Amino acid sequence: MANLQGKTAIVTGSTSGIGQGIAEALAKSGANIMLNGLGDAAKIEAQRVAFEKNYNVRAAYHPADMTKPAEIADMVNTAAAKFGSVDILVNNAGIQHVSPIDQFPIDKWDAIIAINLSASFHAIRAVVPHMREKGWGRIIQIASAHALVASPFKSAYVAAKHGIAGLTKTVALEVAENKITCNAICPGYVWTPLVAGQIADTAKARNMSEDEVKAKVILAAQPTRQFTTVEQLGELAVFLCGSAADNITGAMLPVDGGWTAQ
Predict the structure, then answer these.
(1) Could you give the dihedral angle defined by the CA atoms of residues 94, 10, 27 and 80, in that order, rounded to the nearest 10 degrees?
(2) pTM exceeding 0.85
(3) Residue 254 region, left (φ>0) first, then alpha (ψ -120 to 50), else beta?
(4) What DSSP letter does each residue of 196-219 carry, written as one string?
(5) Segment 126-144, tens digit of pLDDT
(6) Considering the chain, what is the average pLDDT of its residues?
(7) Rounded Cα–Cα distance for residues 15 and 36 (Å)
(8) N or C: which end of the chain has fewer CB within 10 A?
């Protein structure tokens, strides 16, 4: 595991799920953490305090709305002022909506593109000057298998994640000589409380067992028939921040049980 002591990481959408798992992995490796995301204020504060207590790092929270460029820039600048630098940016925040293209709500399209794609642009735009000044940086995009392949009824999500792939490659080329890397992690289905709830709901709706939903509905696309875990994604993110990954940049890294190999 990389030693990230003295580094500062911003992880968007890190108050739950994948983002929380990645933030925890970075904190375990010694990085100070700027949390961001939605949720109950008391629970977020408890999470922040736990990071400091459990991992002996500094942790802060910024409530930036990922649809508002000025708030995203303020989050980056606040982290730089509080911790002295921003060394690692993990663009994780995202939302989803499923609908046929001719019925897809315009406001849902706009929101998904804003949060899943444009927010990454705004965060990278704000953070690159800090990384260039430091002479080191890691930008990690949490994309999706849908950055590489499509599924029906997810037009906005797939378009945004394909956009993330292009953004990742372009940024990697622009900062290649500044000791800054930019890579995308592309998970398939990840075991989170949200997914667990969706499985239970789908089982009731389809009169199936939860095991049947997992095998025949959720994991049908993944040859391993196994969920990716947030811990696996966290460890990959930490690896990308270490010296072994100095020359890995512009990469799309599938963690999808073979989904995109088909």
Answers:
(1) -170
(2) yes
(3) beta
(4) HHHHHHHHHHHT--HHHHIIIIIS
(5) 999 999 999 999 999 999 9
(6) 96
(7) 6
(8) C
CATH number of 8-189+228-254: 3.40.50.720
Q: Give the C-alpha separation, 80 to 93, whole Å.
A: 20
Q: Is 135 left (phi over 0), alpha (psi -120 to 50) or beta?
A: left
Residues of the chain with CATH 3.40.50.720: 8-189+228-254
Which residue is catalytic, options 55, 61, 157, 189? 157
Length of the chain: 262
User: CA-based angle 136:68:102, to the nearest 5?
Assistant: 110
Q: Is 157 a catalytic residue?
A: yes
Q: What is the pLDDT of residues 46-89, one digit of tens each?
A: 999 999 999 999 999 999 999 999 999 999 999 999 999 999 99
